[in-house]
Design goal:
two-stranded parallel sheet, binds heme C
Amino acid sequence: MSIRQFAAVLAAGFVAVASAGAAMGGATDASGDTRQAATFTATQVAAGKTEYAAHCTDCHGPNLNDGEFGGPPLKGEAFRSKWFGQPASALIGFANTTMPPDSPGRLPLETYAEIVAYVLSENGVAPGTRALPADMEALDQLDIQAETAPGNAAQ
Ligand code: HEC
């Protein structure tokens, strides 16, 4: 793919994200901080690691911060300050509508959820017993947080 084609693909991805964002605008929770922490299972992390290696590693790197072709780090302070505190739907929605850039949305939503579970675990979030759902409305109610929800591991 040429740089120009790659840029066009990315631009198309941005449009998709912008319109998805506008469509989701009505569902924004006006009452504030009622979201629960996003949780995921060790099974999802293991599956996500395999899927990441197959579809994302070329650009984002085998260690998530050593990619090529302009793929930014998916691990580290900059990534965390950008996505932690955001709804899980924002991160999974971004990945689902723009990644991989040559065929966004190629994978099932549950695969994006697994990859994001893996990415979060690499950013220091511990897995628990509640899976990250493959459902955008449910993901809208879950915040990405540094700690899993209290009691999650005990359930
Ligand atoms: C062809 C190279 C390429 C591949 C393959 C690729 N990405 Fe990306 N990715 C990029 C580029 C370039 C950006 C930055 C552009 C942007 O932010 O829109 C990016 C940005 C991202 C971001 C946002 C990072 C941030 O700091 O906000 C996430 C999340 C992401 N990619 C996930 C994935 C996942 C998951 C896969 C595999 C399914 C994947 N990417 C495959 C090139 C790639």
